[in-house]
Structure formats: C-alpha cells, structure tokens
Specification:
The protein is α+β, with helices and mostly antiparallel strands. The chain has one domain: Cytochrome p450 (Orthogonal Bundle), CATH 1.10.630. It is built from 17 helices and 6 strands. A 4-stranded mixed beta sheet has the order 1-2-6-3, with helices on both faces. Helix 11 packs across helix 14. The longest helix is centred in the middle third of the chain and has 32 residues. It is globular, with a radius of gyration of 24 Å. The N and C termini lie far apart (about 55 Å). Pfam families: p450. Its cofactor is heme. Belongs to the cytochrome P450 family.
C-alpha cells in the first residue's frame, strides 16, 4: 500500500510539473517574446519585485518591445504598448474585452453578490454604470463646488499654520486628508448633519437614494466604499505629482500662477465657478502633462478576453488577459516625439500633432474612470487656492526627481 501511495504521489508530481512546464512556455511556443517564467509562479517574483509595476513594464518594453507575454502565476498576460493595439483593446473591441483581471477569491462576478462597479462586467456592469453616471454629470458637479471649496479653504488654513512653524511641510499628507475630506463630504456625510441639509449636498442624497432603489444592499455598500477609496487616493497622488513638477519647474509654476491671477482673481468671499476653471488652459496643460508621464490608471488597465478574437495580427484566446501598458505608451518617442520623457506642458497648448487618441490617463473606452470629471475639477480647484496662497519651493527633505530605474 505504501509503495502504491508513493507511486501515485510521484506520478501526480510529474504530471503537475509537466503541466506547469507546458503552461509556462505558452508565449514562447507562440513566438511572442517575454521574460522567462518559472513553473507555477510564472513571473510573479518580478511583477511584485523591487521596482514599481509601471517601471518594471517600462524596462521590459525596452528589452522585448511593444508587445510581449508574461505569466501571472497560471494566467497568460499579453502586455501591449503598441498604440493601435491599445486603442483596439480599450475602445474598438470592448465587447470582447470587458472583464478585468481579478483575484480568484473574488469568485464569479456575475453571481457573487459582493461585487462593485470596478469588478463587474457585462450586463451587471452596464446596470451599475448607468445607475452611477448621473451623479457625475457636469450640472451635478457644479452643484457640489461650494462643498469642495469649503473643504479646500479649511485645508489651506491648516497649511498656513504648518508653514508658520518654519519646518518643511509634506504636502502629500495634506493632499490625502483634503481629498478624503472632499469625497467623504460628498458621498459619506451623516444624513442628519448640516451637511446633508445643504442644497449643495442634495446630489449625494439623490445619487445614493437611487443606488438604494436599484441595487442590492451589498452592491450599494460596496460601491460607496469603492467611490470613497478610489476617489481620494488617486486625487491626492495626482496633486502630489503636480506639486513635485512645479517645484522642479519654477517657470511653469510662475506661468500657472499668472494665469490663475488673471482668470480667478477672486475678491474676498467670492467662489470659483465652473466656467473659470474651463478657461484655465495652461493649468489644463500642466494636469494633462503630469498624467501623461504618470497615468494613475496604469496598473489597473487590464482586460480579460471573453471570446477568442484578434488584436492586431495576434490571436487572443478566451481567458487570456491583456494589459495596456499606458506608462510606456505615454513615453513612446515614436508617438510623442524625442522629448517624450520630458515634462513640457506647452505641448498641449497646440492641437498640432498631439496624439490624443493614444492618451489614456484615466483608462479608455466605455470603462473609462467614471469619476474623471470630478477628479479634474477637484485638482484644479485645489491648485487655484494653493498657488494663490503659497509659492512651492524645494527644501532639504524634498525627494529627488523620479527616475526610471527604480533606484
């Protein structure tokens, strides 16, 4: 009996090793380059290595080109930064690539009741998206501007107190607190508080009342958490990146301040309006250029092939994952020019030769970030008040300019 058990274990181990070995050679057998994977683990050690994922993909693209394959455990992942293929993936063939890369613990996104908008796909995603869309319309965003401005003014006063100490101020900490406060005021205020009695907060009441009518309790709670977590983190990080760029490019900061003074020269007690924000063309250029170099959506723009199809001239089998490497695409010199890795907001001030169809800071296609307009509005309002109150300068604790080596 012992020998029989030992034989079964040996045979099972050999079968497992053979299967793992065969699966690890999936891309090699198809003639698609990529880093050598290990059986079972694939390239996970490098994916979650010392370099941030964006930099790891960027470095791989230098070795293997715009199209290469990696193994995420057992999963086959095609990484693409080829412009036309990215557009095909996100926009033109959305019906084939509408699912996301998910951890197995999530389960079946069609039947699991604990699924929110980010994870959902197919008809369920369409239902959740259509429910949430009205809350992010321009007319509704205009209504919540006073709430956002009040939160910003409180944060600016806190920054003034911190500055008076004479010590270096870590802006990122304040941006995180500010972004969290804004999204919490809009979406998570107490129902009986003065906030909820304000006419400006009615948008949140209306939106989540509609969620309550159309969603299960689980969906409603999870979508509230999703909007809260996604809403503050990305906004705070983008503000920090912009502040960093302004510190290292004082001429850009000066020009941006002058534009703000010209268009938003507010008197005491006056508030910013949406039309003023839309006139801030140079600020728009600074924001776009920051997001070009560091797209906040880069690590989450992946899709699952739901039916076998093609991308370019490559056949993508059902169940294969495709990751759009936006960080690399946004720095592609063949797309953006020889200065692609330089911070140059001026490139956005002319419509000549700007490849906007290959620009995806918030993802792209039908699954583009639903909170994009809100995030852009938040960021612009913060910058108006921040630069009218302070000049941003380097100090002894300012981190050095990011490089692309991960060092």
């Amino acid at each position: 009996m012992f020998l029989l058990i030992l034989l079964l274990i040996t045979i099972s181990s050999l079968l497992l090793f053979w299967t793992a070995r065969r699966k690890s050679n999936y891309w090699k057998n198809r003639g698609i380059p990529g880093p050598e994977p290990l059986p079972i683990k694939g390239n996970i050690d490098l994916i979650f290595g010392k370099n941030p994922l964006s930099l790891q993909l960027f470095n791989w693209s230098k070795i293997y080109g715009r199209i290469y394959g990696i193994k995420h455990g057992w999963n086959n992942v095609l990484v693409v930064s080829e412009p036309k293929m990215v557009k095909e993936l996100l926009v033109e063939k959305f019906e084939y690539f509408h699912g996301r890369f998910l951890c197995p613990i999530v389960g079946d996104v069609d039947t699991n009741k604990f699924i929110h908008l980010f994870f959902a796909k197919g008809k369920r995603w369409k239902r959740l998206r259509s429910i949430a869309n009205p809350a992010f319309s321009i007319s509704n965003l205009k209504r919540i501007m006073p709430i956002i401005e009040d939160s910003i003014k409180i944060n600016i006063n806190l920054l003034k107190e911190a500055k008076s100490s004479g010590k270096c101020v870590d802006l990122h900490e304040y941006f995180v607190e500010l972004a969290f406060d804004i999204i919490a005021r809009i979406a998570m205020g107490q129902r009986d508080s003065k906030q909820f009695k304000s006419e400006y907060c009615q948008i949140a009441v209306d939106a989540f009342a509609y969620f309550e009518r159309c969603n299960t309790i689980e969906e409603m709670v999870l979508n509230c958490v999703l909007f809260l977590m996604a809403g503050f983190d990305t906004t705070a990080n983008t503000l920090s990146l912009i502040a960093h760029n302004l510190v290292f490019n004082p001429q850009v900061q000066k020009r941006l301040f002058e534009e703000i003074e010209e268009i938003c020269g507010l008197e005491e007690g006056e508030m910013i309006d949406y039309e003023q924000l839309s006139k801030l063309k140079y600020m728009d250029a600074v924001l776009k250029e920051t997001l070009r170099l560091c797209p906040i959506a880069n690590d989450v723009v992946n899709r699952r092939c739901e039916e076998t199809t093609t991308l370019g001239d490559i056949t993508i089998e059902k169940g294969t994952y495709v990751s759009a490497d936006l960080f690399t695409l946004h720095r592609d010199k063949k797309v953006w020019g020889e200065d692609a890795e330089e911070f140059k907001p001026e490139r956005w001030l002319s419509n000549d030769n700007i490849p906007t169809e290959y620009y995806y800071p918030f993802g792209g296609g039908p699954r583009i970030c639903i909170g994009m307009r809100l995030a852009m509005m938040d960021i612009k309002m913060v910058l108006v008040h921040l630069l009218r109150s302070f000049e941003l300068e380097r100090c002894s604790e300012t981190f050095v300019k990011p490089n692309l080596t991960g060092q």
